[in-house]
Design a protein that fits this description.
alpha/beta, two-stranded antiparallel sheet, TIM Barrel, about 240 residues
């Protein structure tokens, strides 16, 4: 069985092609937190070269903070924020005669969709209204998965290879010690536990259930390529 491995790309990190042999799915920045039309084109071209599926990675319009600072927008503006980025990305993809297969929110938008049902519903509706065949990727066990399913969208429950978890199933905030894994063995061990046992051990030592349908490796991580190579080998051997 092949386990999907996804990565956030087109963010100007410089290692996109190095990641390609080890992933199946790319979440490509739409220009609001990183990237532009040119980087979208370059990343899509790489995906076609390596047979990697493409999807949009919309965010808050916040390049200064890399989309990692939450913004309290009115719900109609939140809907438009997502829709506008899907339009931008779709137009770029269509120039290659391909369609996006999925949408994965980025950073603070992703976290908001995970913890707030109302925001999750609006984001899911924006995706459905744009194209009801698109898969919405979200944090395993979170509101966005629940809300997307409720309105008939396909979903992919995402788990993280390089992040630690809180007891409630949320990711440990990046500002806290231990939020990011630095050791390849630790990342592989967590991934294999999530796949084989359907659980994850939280930062406090508690074991909680989790659904692992796609595994994220952050492209901007210090050990991203090393992690991707080891995890790909471990899960798809």
């Amino acid at each position: 069985m092949v386990i999907d491995i996804n990565c956030d790309l087109g963010e100007g990190i410089g290692n996109d092609e190095l990641m390609m042999p080890f992933i199946h799915t790319a979440n490509i920045a739409c220009g609001y937190h990183a990237g532009d039309v040119t980087t979208m084109q370059e990343t899509i071209a790489l995906c076609l070269k390596y047979g990697v599926t493409i999807g949009a990675h919309p965010s808050f319009y916040d390049r200064d903070n890399f989309g990692r600072q939450e913004m309290n927008l009115p719900l109609d503006e939140l809907y438009d924020l997502v829709t506008q980025q899907l339009i931008i990305f779709s137009e770029v993809a269509s120039s290659f005669d391909i369609k996006m297969k999925h949408v994965k929110p980025h950073g603070a938008l992703y976290n908001m969709a995970a913890k707030d049902a109302l925001s999750a519903n609006v984001i899911a509706k924006a995706v459905r209204d744009f194209d009801s065949s698109i898969i919405l990727v979200g944090l395993s066990g979170s509101h966005v998965i629940e809300q997307a399913k409720a309105i008939g969208l396909q979903t992919a429950s995402e788990v993280f290879a390089d992040r630690s978890y809180q007891d409630d199933g949320s990711l440990t905030p990046r500002s806290q010690l231990g939020a990011l894994f630095e050791n390849t063995e630790d990342a592989v061990k967590q991934v294999m536990q999530m796949i084989n046992e359907g659980t994850v051990t939280t930062i406090s030592g508690k074991t909680i259930p989790i659904v692992a349908e796609t595994i994220c490796i952050h492209g901007d991580g210090k050990h991203a390529v090393e992690f991707a190579k080891a995890i790909s080998k471990a899960v798809n051997r």
